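Section handout 9: paired folding examples.
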Amino acid sequence: MILSLSNQVHIFITSVVIGIISGIIYDIIKIFRIAIKHNNFIIQLEDALFWIGITFFSFTVMISRNFGDIRFFNIIGIFSGMILYILTVSPIIIGLSEKIIYIIKYILRLFITIITTPLRLIYIIMLKPVIKLIKHINKRCEKLLHLIYFCAKIKTKSFMGKTRTAKDKKQKD
């Protein structure tokens, strides 16, 4: 079907908007990666799912707007929108998001520190001396067991020596 120039411009603008939406979605994924660290496998999986989803979304919208035709300027419009967004707005959004994430993490750490301080004080005041006492008792027990083992070794040697002399006496008789 032949489209008028105004329809083609409208479709191209729709393509650019789809590209901008794609950039926004990818920024959301990047912000999520900043907030929660990912390993390489998860990053690759997220990227693959992103591109599959964006491709499906873009072609669905373009097919419905173009009456089943995908034109080259549609693809150029999508990539132009993404590049336009990534070069202009994305650095600002990522920078603000990093600062907001840093502030939220700082507040959470502060909150956790405030909550755990009484527990740490209890640990320092009550449990730490008990743990030191238990370690001291363990050391004493180890030394005692070592001495007992050493004495048992000496007794065994002297017992074996006495039995040898008794055997030697029997053999001489």
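Moving on to protein 2 of 2.
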Amino acid sequence: MKLLRTFTAIAALIVLIGTLAFLYHHGDMIPHYKTFSGEPASLRSCTIIIEQFNQHGSLGVIQLGLLMLIFNPILRVILSLVSFVHERNWKYVIISGIVASTLLYSLLSSAG
């Protein structure tokens, strides 16, 4: 599964590049640890994250790398499903199909 390792390494590299760009532009900001503020609403949509990435926004770059890390296990299950179909191992096709559909359902239901 070199593909998945490579995918993870690329995602981590994207997060690192985004972090370095963010620190370059905002490294002098003083964080407020008493008040938690999550991600802005503008970075909670996949399409907006991709737009920010295309505009070289450092937070968009970081978010895209994190999205890639989130999709990595889903990709792993889907590749396993394809592999089991190719091998005609129907028992594991059913199991992988259940896991893939559960992952996709939970991802899509939480996105709305």
